[in-house]
Fold each of these.
Amino acid sequence: MLAYIIRRLAYALPILLGVNLLTFALFFMVNTPDQMARVQLGDKHVSEEAIEQWKAQRGYDKPLFINTAENSEGLLTDTIFFEKSARLFVFDFGKSDEGRVIGADISERMWPSLAVALPTFIIGISVNIVFALFVVMFRASAFDTAAMVLCVVLLSISGVFYILGGQYFFAKLWHLVPISGYLAGTDAIRFLILPVIIGVVAGIGGGTRLYRTLFLEEANKDYVRTARAKGVSETAVLFRHILPNGLIPILTSVVVVIPSLFMGSLLIESFFGIPGLGSYTLDAIQAQDFAIVRSMVFLGSVLYILGLILTDISYTLVDPRVRLS
Amino acid sequence: MNTVVLGKMRCGGFTGRLQTGLKKSGWLKAVSAVTGRFGGAGLWLAGTLLLVGCSDQAWNNPHPESEASANILYSSFSERPKFLDPARSYSADESRFIDQIYEPPLAYDYLKRPYELIPNTLTAMPDIRYSDADGNEVDANSENIAFSTYHFQLQPGIRYQPHPAFALNENGESRYLFASAAESEQYRSLDDFTEQGSRELVAEDYVYQVKRLADPKLLSPVRALLSDYIVGMTEFSQIASDTRKALEEKAGKQAWLDLRELSMAGVEAQSRYDFTIRLKGKYPQFKYWLAFHFFAPIPWEVDRFYHQPGLADRNIVLNWHPVGTGPFMMTRNNPNEVIILEKNPNYRADYYPAEGSPEDVAAGLLDDAGKQLPLLDKVVYRLEKEAIPLWTKFMQGYYDRSGIASDSFDQAIRVSSDGIGLSPEMTAKGVTLEKEVVLGSYYLAFNMLDPVVGDKGDAKSRERARKLRQAIAIVYDQQEMISIFANGRGEVAMSPIPPGIFGYQSGEEGINPYVFDWVDGKPQRKSLEEAKRLLAEAGYPGGRHAKTGEPLVLNLDTPTGGSGGSAMQNWMIKQFKKLNIQLNIRGTDYNRFKEKMQTGNAQLFQWGWLADYPDAENFLFLQYGNNGQVISGGSGVNSTNYNNAEYNRLFDQMQLMEDSPQRMEIIRRMIAILQRDAVWASGWHPHSYVLNNHWVRNVKAHGISKSVVKYFAVDTEQRSQAQAAWNAPVLWPIFVVVGILLIALLPGYRGFRRRQQRRIQTALTNTTPAEKEG
């Protein structure tokens, strides 16, 4: 397995390089260093000299990929690409265009992201599995049909609607929770209740439908019929036979998401004022701070690749038939 | 125990009420059964409810319980500040924080109108002396003025806020000095520096800051402007740049350059409390710059402290942790969540003003006269990016002050024949409205370098273009735009100068006679026929070229994006359609827009200007020829590229004068030139509306100064009562949800049991006698 993991990590390098090159090229096509400088320096009394100095201080006055003015070593290293993007490979995120250390910001902001994403993820999965099993128990009945209609309805509603509706009813009308905000420590719980509930409810439609399909597939297999033939109770059939076998495909869709939980949710964090990495990315896009955006895109790619590797490993743990080679 | 006291839910109150309700309805047993089955979920729900229910404060209170009844002002910010360094910051979003911390030599009187400068950390207003090129003192009105020297006398005894940069060890040396990043590794944030100190403000600190403004590394936005005036500033910039380069080659990029070792010819500390700044020529507007945070003092110890190895890598920099002598100090700066200012324990003797107008007296603005400032212990600014949560929290009493977003305007404001006032809902809550005319203008303008609408070519074509601009100025109904898109919050600009500034004229005298007539005591826009006549004279009868017959198409560049899609853009197209002119709106991102302006590639455009200081010069320089965007390479503020010799001559004359009838006459002539040439098709001065909850006192809008929080006061008792009254939790939805779940679960559970039973029965029924025997 170790050889497999090393091989997968080696495969990841060209992928990350490609992602890096692509984002780098896109950002510099959209915005030149001069434009970045103007955004950061503001509107009033901005001289050409100030723009040149801003670029020089941040290394944006160098060539993009090849520095012909340098010798063999500096040819590639004394360039914007090497200094701004290649260093990401050693997780040196550098400074944002406004001068803050990105690494320090990320380590500070990932905790609020996790505080929302983790309970939403765990409770969401649990609720979806319970609902799906419940529906499977009553499969091919009127209840099943009604539940699926409800799921499609829930699935069709925009996430923003859940957020605005939740804020209106729970916070504005009924005064049960703060409408938005965040405090550190145990005080955070008051602020997390509503985003977590909304995150869970918004995911019920899609999750329940997917898991129901997976469980139904298992429910029609021979070993389930055999178990029933042996006289095993319906509860035992569901929980001892269908659930463990149904969890294998669920695991594949779930494990890949786990590392990305650090990245936070753009929508939830923005609407609820939670100072996580999701809103960090969104703010950076709005402020055209490409140093942050590049870092977050790279980090997202790394975490996604990590998620895929973890998924492969988890296969071997839950399904003895699978061996990594 | 089943009573909710003004929304404050006590632990016993909640559980008592819950149990009473359940016992009465006889559902307790059923609930117990269900929670027994679904123990985990029940426990989680109960735990959560208990956690919030056991608190003394309202459930939806976004502030920590420990702050209940504290003397705190709660406010918000929507944009995270980029720069908190007084040499670098040039935005109102940043000034609202650092202007409470840093103290420049001058300040604005809080209550007096028109705006008046007063000494801040000085004993008196600076003494200004003029001299000729030979150094001989001359009169203020002399034509031979070569230099102006400002003498500043500081109040003794002013002390800085407590800060680790001032902490000393037993030998009197700095407590925190690190030779390497490894030594500072243990200090992850400013809070980790447990020892703090302070010291007295001295003249050298102001000198040090002026040198910082000149240091090219700091990229101060006013360096280029001030270099034109302060003697030796340009030379100092070069020296600082060269010295830094040599230092960085030797000691690395983070090395601290001690600016005390470099001298600037025009800035000098004469004694501990006395310093001078020498300017080239006469620059009356310099006094306004002295009320900006750019001229706030920075002690060298602080600059050295933040330049120590390793600190910048943890965002421990002056740009994020300001240090000043002001009424407040920043004790928490998390621009992603909250910024907290607390009362500076070392703040000097500074008292609430005792003079004000009769209106101020009537409004209770002098009730705290003579009290030591600041009146608040703490100010908490929370990040609020969305308008709905901000408004909701204000209405719930959790924010003391709020602006009015368009979505909330109808709820907050009632427009009637008597004018604009608060809605009955706001009046019932005791909310007060704070109105002011923003010292700025938004405008639709022409690029005077454009061959169609501009001022190019021979006299005949210039005259035709002028008539075209005048025709457009008549049909562009700015008042309608303000009513539709700004909820009436603004007024039509007759000139670039807004109300409240010397040079502004109201009434018939002030109207733009090329666009309006004075009818029945108010301005009335000229007729469409008049505009059509001008258009025909311009060579476009009926909106078509007189010779070719081709329709007149004009291009508007706007940074708002879209191409005619938005309601605003459709409205603009309709305005031009009145003259049968086709308006092509070219939406672009702000960067591209600025590029077009810099290169003069626009025809019509929309932009705005917010004043730096309350002087006509700061508005009329928007059309000064030397400030043209194109000829200045993008650094000028004259985005129209207007260049009129007579206007330029009058401007040169006017900018050197103090306010006087002569100056007023020159301003009138300048405005008349602008109106005739119709450089702006239209403009408007926005109005700012701020709402205050009834427990907020001493609030008076100030168009220029942001250093006003020290005057604010809150009645915390009234606030607590209002918060409790307005936020009683509504519990019935919880019971409804629980009820619905039970209704759904119980039949489901019964169905499940029946299903299992049926399967067993079916299995037994279907079993053959032979199987039974087997």
Amino acid sequence: MNWLSDNVNQLALLGAAAILVLTIGVSAKYFKQIKEGKSEGVLKDENWDGIGEYKNNSPIGWSLAFIGTIIWGVWYWFVGYPLNAFSQIGQYNEEVAAHTKMFEKKWANPTKEDLLGMGEGVYLVQCSPCHGIDATGIEGKAQDLTKRLLKESVLAVIEKGSAALGDKKMDGVGKFGYQMGEMPPGLVSGDDAKAVAEYVANGFKGNQKGAEVFANACASCHGPDGKGMNGMAPNLKEYDDTIIKHVLEHGKQGVIGTMPSFKGRLTAVQEKAVATYIRSLSEK
Amino acid sequence: MFGWLERNPFFFAVGVFIVIAFAGLIEIVPDFAQASRPVAGTKPYSLLRLAGRQVYIKDSCNACHSQLIRPFKSETDRYGNYSLSGEYAYDRPFLWGSKRTGPDLHRVGNYRTSDWHANHMWDPTSVVPGSIMPAYKHMFTNVADLETAYAEALTVKKVFNVPYDKDIDGDGKVDVPLGSFEQAKKQALAEALKIAKETKREDLVKMVESGKIPEIVALIAYLNGLK
């Protein structure tokens, strides 16, 4: 009897036997009741053409379930459904809120390695399509991020002036992004401009004449070391957090082309991470 | 009163259908009508953008690129805010797409520039190493079909009351001018010249200056407008 060793078959057989026994038992009960049973109920007063009806009170359990259903129905109609209905956007908002909370907790105090790793990730997704995977700007198509400034860029800014990454729609400091405000065009010209452009593009080295011009014409705002006096004016020596944050938020329009604004797309930590990563490129 | 209904099975079936459909009618139709209204800030396509949209459809960009950002964190991180149905109010037909061989393009205007698109369409691997997108060099010489685009714009303006030549946002200025074909073409050429200059390609600028708009310029105008 191999098939009986299977427990599903055993259960099925047991079930079949139970059905058989119950069927016989219940049938026998009703056969007996039909043969021998006597009415125990009390008839109602009404009868219809001689046909009467017993007094049958509704069972307590049934009545409670009926009333309970009405109460639940009122709750569901006015509270349950309207306040708990599924919404895809609601689910999205919860997902984002949970992620933001987790992100802020996890990266409350990131180390430099954390920032470098995160910055590289963000850079590869958001920045590399234009600036290139190696960040050299794909042969002049975008800013070469391994260097701070090109000679052409410095010359263009000297010639045209700069709104210092400002948002022209805003008033006051916000308009210019930096405390020092707008840089007027033509502060230096001719050979002086070329010399200072070469000096700045070369990382503040070489070209003695450029160094002199810088000290006279540029240092009052950008600082004698070119670092922008702690965020008063743009840092010309390296990509500091302030300039990266400004460019990400306002976009940039320069001699190379136009960079769109990335406002609202990165968190503050991510912006700092991108700045850290970009700085690390020019240190190599 | 309704005895006749019980004797006419056909009309009885119609009655049953109306009773059952009624709930759907009052629950679905108002919400649908609300959601399909243009989202604030949505404007009809200018002639140049419409011509670019036709290039997009003609070259089957929608076969590989979707235009629908779903409300998931992973998507909104990469592509921007999730899409709303009202943003497609002037899309006939919408270009949601069903497959992403390439990335979604619904908000590509926010994070790419004219010169990037020109470089990319000329030789995709020059800006995206490892890209499997084919080059679309023919777009740089083919001329965009402004006549057909104008016919489409005029048709939707007349038939569907799309608000061309109207002040949509209430600032007292016409938002998307169309006018006669000559006026619309002049406007399109001015827009095209700006974009051609942004691409930094002399051949495109020359072509626009001679009165012909290359397909790529129209397409870039369309892509830049996807926000």
